[in-house]
Design a protein that fits this description.
The protein is α+β, with helices and mostly antiparallel strands. The protein has 7 helices and 12 strands. The strands form 2 sheets. It has a 7-stranded mixed sheet, with helices on both faces. The protein binds biotin.
Length: 281
């Protein structure tokens, strides 16, 4: 539908508005599903992918009633103030490639946010922070066929023009938005178009040039390495210094007994803001 024929509220992220001037080659160029309200764009993208939707399909919503975060947490999605989107990807790779996708998306999101003038940082594995507060998050999900990826869904949430009082009290001191950090509104449509370009570029770089360029760029945005971190794993907890990222994207954490832990996935809390403080005692 042309933007002129679309009767939804001005500022709504309709397919016509998104496609107008979108400079990607394939991402968001075929099917775009845009909702005023949906439970979760990731859930909808998974449903569409199961029905055969092609790679590059985009699902976007003005608000989500059951936005999903990592580790079963909710993603607060106030109406009209954030970006809530999911893309369907069909990478021709095996299952062990999949963790690379989230780190790659982190670089793309941080790169798009940096173009607004903000100073984003990445917290391993894929939180986007500004001044130590969370401004965005990434939820990657996949369905595997034997050991191959049948499809992946890459979900991204960014607090764009969210006001302080739109965050529930429980996260008010932990979250921020681009508006709060820059002191001005940011165009959601321009940010979305720029994000889609960055995603396409970094995804193609991952497929063609491998993971090293992504890791290099990830390190430029990194806020985790060198810090004391507490990692919550399903059955245990590790406290130590986040020492390095490995070539597969896993995090190496050295505890005070000098034991090195290889973290594949987990909930990471930055304990010290001072990267030189190290582990004491
Ligand atoms: C996290 O940091 O915990 C990940 C948050 C991911 C939120 C986005 S919003 C769009 C997409 N749809 C969802 O239900 N979740 C992701």
């Amino acid at each position: 539908m042309s933007p002129a024929l679309d009767k939804r509220l001005p500022g709504t992220l309709t397919p016509g508005v998104i496609k107008q001037g979108l400079k990607t080659r394939w991402l968001g160029q075929s099917a775009i599903f845009s909702f005023d309200v949906i439970e979760s764009t990731n859930a909808e993208a998974k449903r569409l992918a199961q029905e055969g939707a092609q790679g590059g399909t985009l699902v976007v919503a003005d608000t989500q009633t059951k936005g999903q975060g990592r580790l079963g947490r909710p993603w607060v999605s106030p109406s009209g103030s954030g970006l809530y989107l999911s893309t369907i990807l069909r990478p021709a790779h095996s299952a062990n490639w999949f963790p690379r996708l989230a780190l790659t998306a982190g670089v793309a999101v941080a790169s798009a946010i940096r173009k607004t003038g903000a100073m984003p940082q990445l917290k391993w594995p894929n939180d986007i922070l500004i001044a130590d507060r969370k401004v965005g998050g990434i939820l990657t999900e996949a369905v595997f066929d034997k050991k191959r990826i049948e499809f992946a869904v890459l979900g991204i949430g960014i607090n764009v023009n969210t006001e302080q009082d739109e965050f529930p009290l429980s996260i008010r001191n932990l979250a921020t938005s681009l508006r709060l950090s820059l002191g001005r509104r940011v165009s959601r449509i321009h940010l979305l178009q720029s994000l889609l370009c960055q995603l396409e570029e970094w995804y193609e770089s991952l497929n063609k040039g491998g993971f090293d360029p992504i890791l290099e760029s990830w390190s430029e945005f990194d806020s985790t390495l060198g810090r004391v971190v507490e990692v919550f794993l399903p059955e245990s907890r590790v406290v130590g210094v986040a020492e390095a990222l490995q070539s597969d994207g896993t995090l190496l954490v050295r505890d005070k007994e000098n034991c090195l832990h290889r973290i594949l996935a987990g909930d990471v809390v930055h304990c010290s803001t001072d990267r030189s403080s190290g582990l004491k005692g």
